[in-house]
Design goal:
2 domains, alpha+beta, 5 strands, 142 residues, OB fold (Dihydrolipoamide Acetyltransferase, E2P), rod-shaped
Amino acid sequence: MIVFYWLIAAAVFLAAEVLTLGLTSIWFAGGALMGAVMAGLKFPLYVQLLVFALVSGVLLLLTRPLAQKYLNSKTIRTNAESLIGETCIVTEPIDNLKAEGQVSINGQTWTARSFSDEVLLPRDQLVSVEKISGVKLIVKPL
């Protein structure tokens, strides 16, 4: 009868994974299946629980980072994130100490700051977007 309980636990973990897609409960489903195998082989409950915990932990620690890396590699940057690495032109000289500067990119004007306070960027200079800080583009010369 305990095998049946382990299989129900595995089904619950799988259902939770399907509902959340968080890549966490799937590993516990694997542990529950191994718990069912141990129960089927008539091991005592403490051994079943130990195997469940060990298998779940090992699966979580070893395979979750690989799965997330594979799944997250297909995400497409959108909105402002898509500007990182793009080339733009300085439309108002950039001086971090005076809190001045703008660039034009894709027909839009953005407030911009230099990647370094010591670097002044004149009008009409081509720059690349290094990162976004709030609503400002952080740029550096090409």
